[in-house]
């Protein structure tokens, strides 16, 4: 087990679905002590209760607008009840007791199957005080040690404020077969590219031109990038084919996907910088039995830090107001440019949680800020 930084308690919570039940184990490492197993067991009859409460997928109204009126993470009453249920069903009492200690905590969560869709940051650990897990701990995703041990390459970390590569809407504006569509079908919003938006020194692609998967390869290999932010269309894999998940590019106006399988097979062609963010339609693949999707492909290609989204986010153009998805992407972008990206992203999430508690509106709901999760490889720098 790798500590993120400093003196703290580190926990690793592993949860595996077993039909309607959940098998769990908990490891703990103190300030100087090595990791040791302290508890484990089976949580019975949790699947149906949890999955029925997580009505996360955005629904469209008759006019095509996103309807979040009864979303379990965007409606304040439903969200509070969901957070309470998740905490009661999924957090072992021994972990809750440990989090009460007056020290810094990091919780590494390895959750597969339907458990990967749980908004862990928003899970309640004390409903009476409306206290959430992220308020007591830094949260990161955990992957199998074998993924790190067998990676094909490892990017050399560089100054995160050095030029990075930002790929926005590289795929076709609309695809009638897949239903995929651009996040920004017109020009990029000023909030994204203006003052306070993307870093001035970064390269934003494809710009006014299209970008194929081959052109993406040449661009990635042609520069020493400090970061990669992909913001756009993503194809989700399936339980049978997690490697079918893809970043969507285009060639001559035709969809040209870079699948996780292609990326895994040829990481040198699409080398990943040390920090990678994949923002779009549910880029996580932990809900599948085999880990072979886009986050794993990015790690195999060199990434030390990968941030991704657990579920599909509503595009801002179909939202009633505000630019919450753009704001989320920029929060990840700025965090990845900082010395401690995990903590910087957590600070932003805590700001959103405070705003949600004070005046719950859809734009500050956990539907957005709890969609994010990150993996930091051992030796990948400060979290």
Question: Can you give a write-up of this model?
Answer:
The chain is of the alpha/beta class. It contains 12 helices and 18 strands. Residues 1-6 have low confidence and may be disordered.
Secondary structure layout:
Elements lengths: L8 E10 L2 E9 L6 E8 L3 H7 L5 E2 L5 E2 L8 H15 L2 H7 L5 E7 L12 E3 L4 E2 H4 L1 E4 L3 H5 L15 E4 L21 H4 L9 E3 L7 H9 L5 E5 L2 E2 L10 E6 L2 E6 H6 L9 E5 L14 H7 L4 E5 L14 H13 L4 H18 L7 H4 L2 E5 L7
Parallel strand pairs: 1-6, 6-9, 10-11, 10-12, 12-16, 16-17
Antiparallel strand pairs: 1-2, 2-3, 4-5, 7-8, 13-14, 14-15, 17-18
Helix pairs in contact: 10-11
DSSP summary, beta strand count = 18
Low-confidence stretches: 1-6
Contiguous helical run count: 12
Quaternary organisation of the protein chains:
single chain
Portion in helices: 25-40%
Kindly summarize this structure in a few lines.
The chain is an alpha/beta fold and 383 residues long.
What are its keywords?
383 residues; alpha/beta; 6-stranded mixed beta sheet; 5-stranded mixed beta sheet; 12 helices; 26% helix; globular; disordered N terminus
